[in-house]
Each structure stands twice: as C-alpha cells, then as structure tokens.
Amino acid sequence: MGSKFFVKAKLLDILKFSSISTKIMGIIIGIVLVLGGWTSFQTYDTMQTTLREQLIKQGISTSQYISARSVDLIFTNDTFTLHQLISKVVESNKDVRYVFILDSQGDLITNSFGKILPKGLLDANKVSADSQQNIQTLNTEEGLVYDIAIPIFEGTAGTVRLGMSELEIQKILDKTMQRMLVTTILVAVIGIFVAYFFTSLLTKPIVQMVETTKAIGKGQFDQKVKLSWAHDEIMVLGKAFNEMIENLQKSDQVRSNLLKKIISAQEEERKRIARELHDQTGQSLTSLMIGLKMLEESKDIEEIKNNSMQLRQLTNDILDEIRDLSLALRPSVLDDLGLEAALSRYTQDCSVKLGIDVDFQAFGMQGLYLEPEIRLTIYRVVQEALTNVAKYSKASEASVILERKGDNLIAIIEDNGVGFDVQTILDSTIYEKKLGLHGMMERVNLIGGELTIESEPGMGTTIYNHISLKGLVANEKSKDFNS
Ligand SMILES: Nc1ncnc2c1ncn2[C@@H]1O[C@H](COP(=O)(O)OP(=O)(O)OP(=O)(O)O)[C@@H](O)[C@H]1O
Ligand SMILES: [Mg+2]
C-alpha cells in the first residue's frame, strides 16, 4: 500500500516537473511501445496458429503418402524398402521428426530412430480402423511434437505413425519476433528524434516568451517576442503578448512623463508663490508699513483720517491678493460646499474664464458623501476637459452632467465641436508630452474608476467617467456635502 502510494507520488512528480518536450516524447515512446508490443503479439499468435495448422496438414498428407506406398511392401514383407521409404521422408522433410510403421497387431515393423523407440511413444497415439487419422500433441524435451496416426489399408495392413516437430516453426517465430522487436526499438528511437525536433519547434516560442517576460519584469520594454511562422495558437499568443508589451510600454511612458510633469509643476508653483509673495504681497506690506509710519507721524485729524482710509484700502487689496493665491492653490469651494456646488460655480465662470458657455446638470447627488480624492479628481477632470474644449473644439455648446446611479458615480463632459481621432491622439501625445488626456485617465484610474473618450473628427467629443462608490458611499446627512 505504502510503496504503491510512493510510486504514484513519484510518477506525479515526474509529470509535474518534466518539460513539455519530455512529456510529448514520453507519450510518443509510450504509443510506439504499446503499438509495437500489441502488433508483435498479434503477429506471433496468428503466425503460430497458421504455421501449426500447415504443419499438421503437411504431416497428414505425408502420412497418407507413406500409407499408400507401404501397403504392397507390408504384404510382401519388404521391410528393407519400407525402411528406405521412411528414411527418405525423414531426410527430405526437416519438420518430420520420426516415422514408424506398425503391423495390424500393433508390432513395430520399421522406424526412423534406428533400433528402439523412445519410451512411451508407441502407446502415445492410436487410431481405430474406421477413422481417417488421429493426432496427439506430445510435449517432448525437443518441444511440441504432433503425432499423427493413420491406418494402412483400413488398418488391415497396420498403422503409420509420424511425428511433426514444431522446432522449425519456433525458429521462424523467434526470428520474426526478433525483427519486430528491433523495428519497434528503431521506430521508438526515430520517434524520439522526430518528437524532439517538433516539440522544440513548438516550445521554442514559449521558452522565448518566458525570457521576454523576465526582461519585461525588469522594465526592459524594448523586448518583443519573435512570432512563429505557423499561424497557430502559439502565434496568436505571441501577438497578444507583444500587444500587451506595447500597452505596458505606453503606460510606463505616460507614468514617467506625468511624474516629471508633476515634479516640475510643483517647482513652478512654488516659484510662482514665492514670486507672488515677494513681489506683490511683500511690496503691499511694505507700503502698509510706510503708511502706518506716516499715520504715526500725522498730527492733524483730517490727515489721520485720510491716511487710515488709504491704509484700509491697501489692506483690502492685500487680502484680495492672498485670497486669489489660496484659491489658485486649491479650490476651497470644493471642501466647503462639495463637488456639485464647486462644479456649478466653475461651469458658470467658464464663459468669463474660458470664453465658452457650459450647461451643468446634477442628478441624485443629494445626501451623498464623496471622499475628498473623488471630489478633487472629478473637479480636475472637468477642468482639463473644459480647457481642452475651449482650446481645440470650436464647439458652440458644451455640457457637464454629474449623476449618481446606484453605487456608481457618472460624470460626462460633452461638446459638439470638431472632435478628434482618439487612438491617434493618445498615441502621439505620449511622445509630445501633452498629458492632459493621459493625466485625466491616470487620475480616474487611481481612484479605481474608468475614463472613456468617445470622439471622431467632426462628431464632437464625449468623456465618460465611471467611478464605483461601492464601500465608499456613506449616506450620512451629517456629512452632507455630497458633492
Ligand atoms: N474637446 C476636444 N475637441 C477637439 N480636440 C480635442 C479635445 N480635447 C482634446 N483634443 C485634442 O487632443 C489633444 C491632446 O489633448 P491634451 O489635453 O492631452 O493635450 P494638450 O491640451 O494639447 O496639452 P496639455 O493638456 O498637456 O496642456 C489636443 O491637442 C487636441 O488636438
Ligand atoms: Mg489639455
């Protein structure tokens, strides 16, 4: 039981860890051996049966010949010619092992052995006068012998006994088996070579794909799988694999470009804030300080009033500057009022800011709390999409729709402008480092959503954002800045 289990486990291990070519070669060797073995067995069996039948038939006809020829010789008591007759038969026919003739009393007249018969042979077979012949199979030291007994002159003259040996047949059978064995081994060896050739042809692209996958894993996106010449499943797999590498390469390029852009945008923004603080707010605060000094030195009440009025105006300007700066840094309306209100305000401002009129509609947003990242993502996507509309679309109408459908949030930005070929633009913008569209997609992907662009030259543009809120939605009134 234990050893059976061990053998099974070992076989499974071999199957598990052997390569495809080893498996295929194993199958071919198995088939050749089973087929070879089965064919050999069948051939051996059929040949043996046929040869035996022939041997017996030959024995019977030889016995009949002897019987016919010996009638006169027995009646004339010519034992010498009788002996010559049987000796000739034994000499001329290799399969005839012995012949002997008995008289009607069952006494031996002559035999081909020399003097005496082997023990027990005389009584091993008998034939009655009224039957044609009787055959007995004798298992001797020299192999099987078919003993044929035939009555001479209906038994009145005696009996012919003839032994047909299987020795010659066995030799032929052994030779045939040897040949079949050699052929089977030869076919198996040829099979191994052919299988090796074809399986290496088959597995070569797979091995190559493994190498390429390893290289891709290390970030070497310039690697490609060489497609096999045959139009089979492996070639289709190779093709799909190369497409996957191309897509990976593109998104890797987009990501690295975006990262660079983010870093440089951050630097730019800091420079701008520093400049703004230094050039404007700094200047204004210096003026305020000088004004306060003048106020300190003013004597007459009219002058004081005048100066403090100017100072109030200056302070107001400084406040405006700081508000502008902070607004540019982050749309506080998004945190204070939520996405719906922020988008409503932004789309209203579009005609002034971007020179386009945008229609805004929201559905099912009441009481919906959205995570800050989702709010900011949608806001930035709408901003970029509408900036593009203003820059490129030449549209007469644009609209933004925000809708909650069950566990999903849908945001659609649409225009009826000139449109564009989406795939061509997406492919080319990666290398031109225009990252508006790719940036939008990445942003939406980061919050687990999906952005699809539908556009065609002359057909306008629609951008769909689909964000799943499953597990994120908390329908709390307390946090009621849905949107
Ligand atoms: N609404 C639109 N209508 C027509 N063409 C558009 C529209 N939106 C985008 N495009 C086309 O897609 C291209 C890529 O847009 P994308 O926003 O990625 O880059 P950009 O606006 O040129 O640069 P960036 O956004 O990085 O400042 C544009 O150059 C334009 O040709
Ligand atoms: Mg853009």
Secondary-structure blueprint of this entry?
Layout lengths: L1 H16 L2 H56 L3 H14 L3 E7 L5 E4 L22 E7 L2 E10 L5 E8 L1 H51 L15 H65 L3 H29 L2 H5 L2 H15 L4 E6 L8 H22 L4 E8 L2 E8 L6 H11 L3 H11 L3 E6 L5 E8 L15
Parallel strand pairs: 6-7
Antiparallel strand pairs: 1-2, 1-5, 3-4, 4-5, 7-8, 8-10, 9-10
The protein binds adenosine-5'-triphosphate and magnesium ion (MG).
Magnesium ion binds next to helix 9.
Give a brief outline of the structure.
The protein is α+β, with helices and mostly antiparallel strands and 483 residues long. Helix content is 61%, strand content 15%. The protein folds into 3 domains: 19-175, PAS domain (Beta-Lactamase, 2-Layer Sandwich); 233-323; 333-468, 2-Layer Sandwich (Heat Shock Protein 90).
